[in-house]
Structures are given as structure tokens and as C-alpha cells.
Specification:
The chain contains seven helices and two strands. It has 156 residues and is mainly alpha-helical. The protein has one domain. α2 crosses α3 and α3 crosses α5. The protein is elongated. 24% of the residues are buried.
Length: 156
């Protein structure tokens, strides 16, 4: 009885398989979470504004920076947003798959929002790139990969 050994898939292919759809749904989850938090903050700021006779309304400026703060801190410190964690994704440095620095998280976030401002056209690059990297990934030197199955929750 002979056994054939099937070729094992490349390690890189295992990290990027199914990333594109997961990224899309992770972004939807992140936007939903940001919307819920923004709504809660808006209600709180409105109440604060009435209680302080209008002075508290100045805090509405915080809401403009909430998405940038969310993406920068979570990607720069933990390597993934809450939506990406939910779908088993991690943001890593392209060179060595290390966790991104806070500065890389900031650049990634700025370029992400620039991509949105450009009518999402830079996201189309992820459809043609074999590693599914969008323009903000390429310019920031980061890559979104699947979390290896050997990682336990809470590990980076």
C-alpha cells in the first residue's frame, strides 16, 4: 500500500488566504462600533452642553478625531482593530511580521482615511495585488494577515 504525500501549502499563502473578505467585514464591524461610540458620546456631549449652558458643546470637536484615534491606537499598540480581531486578522510589518509601531499605526490610519476621501479608489489595489494589500498598506509598510491558529487569544 503506497501513500502519497500531498504538497504542503506555502506559509505565506496560509497567512493571506481569505483576507480580503475578512477585511471587508472587519471594517464594517469597526464602523458599526465607531458609530455606536460616537452616538453615545454625542448624547453625552449634548447633555453636557445643556448643563453647562452651551460651553460643553465645544466637546463635539472630539468626535472628528475618534476614528483616527481608534485605528491608530489599536493598530499601533495591539496590531489589530476590534473588527480585525473578531475576524482573525492581524496587521503586521511587511518585512518581518512584527507588530506595528505607534508611528506606523498613525501613518496607516492617515492613509486609510485618505483612501476613503479619494472615493475608495485606492482600495481597488487590494483586488489586483496577490497579497491583497491596499494602497495604505503598501505606503505604510504593513500587511494584513490571518492570525495563525497557534496563537492564543491575547497573544500578539
Amino acid at each position: 500500500m503506497s501513500q502519497t504525500i500531498l504538497p504542503q501549502p506555502e506559509a505565506e499563502w496560509l497567512l493571506i488566504r481569505g483576507v480580503l473578505a475578512r477585511r471587508f467585514f472587519a471594517m464594517l464591524v469597526d464602523m458599526l462600533l465607531l458609530g455606536i461610540v460616537s452616538l453615545g458620546l454625542a448624547i453625552f456631549i449634548t447633555l453636557l452642553g445643556f448643563l453647562t449652558l452651551g460651553v460643553g458643546f465645544l466637546a463635539f470637536g472630539i468626535l472628528n478625531w475618534l476614528p483616527m484615534l481608534y485605528f491608530t491606537l489599536l493598530v499601533g499598540n495591539g496590531g489589530a482593530t476590534l473588527g480585525q480581531m473578531l475576524f482573525g486578522l492581524r496587521v503586521r510589518q511587511d518585512e518581518n511580521l512584527a507588530t506595528p509601531s505607534l508611528a506606523q499605526g498613525l501613518v496607516w490610519s492617515l492613509l486609510l482615511w485618505l483612501s476613503f476621501a479619494l472615493a475608495c479608489v485606492p482600495f481597488l489595489l487590494a483586488l489586483t495585488n496577490p497579497r491583497h494589500r491596499a494602497m495604505h498598506d503598501l505606503l505604510s509598510g504593513l500587511v494584513v494577515v490571518r492570525r495563525p491558529k497557534s496563537c492564543i487569544d491575547g497573544a500578539r
